[in-house]
Design brief:
This protein has 11 helices and 8 strands. By secondary structure, it is α+β, with helices and mostly antiparallel strands. Strands 1, 2, 3, 4, 5, 6, 7 and 8 form an 8-stranded mixed beta sheet that branches. Helix 1 packs antiparallel against helix 2 and helix 8 crosses helix 11. This is Acyl-CoA dehydrogenase.
Length: 390
């Protein structure tokens, strides 16, 4: 953690350039790696520091202040290591290879699930065909954060067997038959390289095909494919993975909002219009507006920081609350940055200043949030169920 402020400064110094050109922030990722933050959540049994969700939230909030794209890419790698720490799904040899690579340099990992035009509950169209003892993967994945720099990709696919199975196939980023289609051209998070990944008969050894299970009917949760104790374990892991995702990505959005607030504070302390003799920050109206932003961010930060250690302790109620917490934190971060832009007028929207980038990044952070309707419907259903038990 000691090197974190320096890393944040380095990220902030290059963020505008990478945003403007939509280029991947290799130097920023290297800085995160050199500070030891890219392997924060590696379990002690693999030689790592065993960072908790509370640690992860703190780090990602700070990285979000520097460059939201670097923070998001980092987040998905930390989530992969955290999942392996909870439940060792990667084969021992494969994960040892990843850890070895992580000591030599940045080794980014992400799960590739989304496909063009897919719907909720549909099995993946990416196909795994038998090839001797291994598999050949063919398909296209979209919105693959960090695509061009991933060392490993955990690709969801279905098999071409008479009774198809679905699972996760671990693919090296340099594999033959794998191509990056540079489709990412978004409003914000422009340096996060969420390109499409095209797979054309990409070879995968048999031991890197994980969790193969029969294809379930549309609308069935993945965890429901298991039975008995396995089903319970799968469901609990899915809930924990979602909780980590919710709070980690919420922290990034809040980091962006804090960067916007810091810029606003400097602006209000320095800006003295021609019709005034004192800076805008001396006016009660602007102080109250800044106070509103501060109050929103304090509330959201306390929510996220308070839930994270409860999730670490395994409190079921905390795990169930991370979806609404992610929604509320994202809303608060977005509202704070929008208010900062409104307070500054034309300077806030100028490309010469970072505030407009913060606005674009925080708006684009919603791509990592489940649909509001789904989050609120689930929260409402849970409230109704609690009511019937009273």
């Amino acid at each position: 953690m000691a090197g974190l402020p320096r890393v944040v400064d380095l990220l902030a110094a290059r963020a505008e350039e990478h945003d403007r050109d939509a280029t991947f922030p290799y130097q920023g990722i290297e800085a995160v790696h050199e500070a030891g933050l890219l392997t924060l959540t590696v379990s002690p049994r693999y030689g790592g520091p065993g960072g908790t969700l509370a640690d992860t939230v703190r780090v990602l909030a700070q990285l979000g202040r520097g460059d939201a794209s670097v923070a998001v890419v980092t987040a998905f790698t930390l989530l992969q290591h955290a999942a392996q720490a909870r439940r060792a799904l990667w084969p021992a040899a494969g994960y040892r290879r990843l850890i070895t690579e992580s000591r030599r340099g940045p080794a980014l990992v992400n799960t590739l699930r989304t496909e063009p035009g897919d719907g909720p509950g549909e099995p993946p169209r990416t196909l795994a065909r038998r090839d001797g003892d291994g598999w050949l993967l063919t398909g296209r994945k979209t919105y693959c954060t960090g695509a061009e720099a991933l060392a490993w990709m955990a690709v969801t696919a279905r098999t071409d067997e008479p009774e198809p199975r679905v699972g996760t196939f671990l693919v090296r980023g340099e594999s033959e038959g794998l191509e990056i289609d540079p489709t990412w051209d978004q409003l914000g998070l422009r340096a996060s390289a969420g390109h499409d990944v095209v797979l054309d008969r990409v070879p995968v050894p048999a031991d890197l095909a994980l969790g193969l299970r029969p294809v379930e009917p549309a609308g069935t949760d993945v965890a429901e494919g298991a039975e008995g104790a396995d089903r319970t374990e799968e469901a609990e892991e899915a809930e924990l993975a979602r909780a980590w995702h919710d709070l980690a990505l919420a922290a990034v959005a809040l980091g962006v909002a804090r960067a916007a607030e810091a810029w606003l504070v400097r602006f209000l302390n320095q800006r003295t219009p021609a019709n005034l003799t004192e800076p805008l920050g001396t006016l009660p109206r602007y102080r109250c507006a800044l106070g509103e932003i501060e109050a929103q961010l304090i509330g959201a930060e306390e929510l996220v920081a308070g839930l994270a250690p409860r999730v670490d302790r395994g409190e079921p109620d905390a795990v169930a609350r991370t979806g609404p917490a992610h929604l509320l934190a994202t809303r608060a971060a977005t509202a704070a940055v929008q208010q900062a832009v409104a307070l500054t007028g034309n300077p806030g929207l100028s490309r010469r200043h970072p505030l407009e980038r913060y606005l674009r990044d925080v708006l684009s952070s919603r791509v990592h949030l489940a649909s509001e309707e789904a989050v609120l419907e689930a929260a409402g259903r849970a409230a109704l169920e609690r009511g019937t038990r009273r």
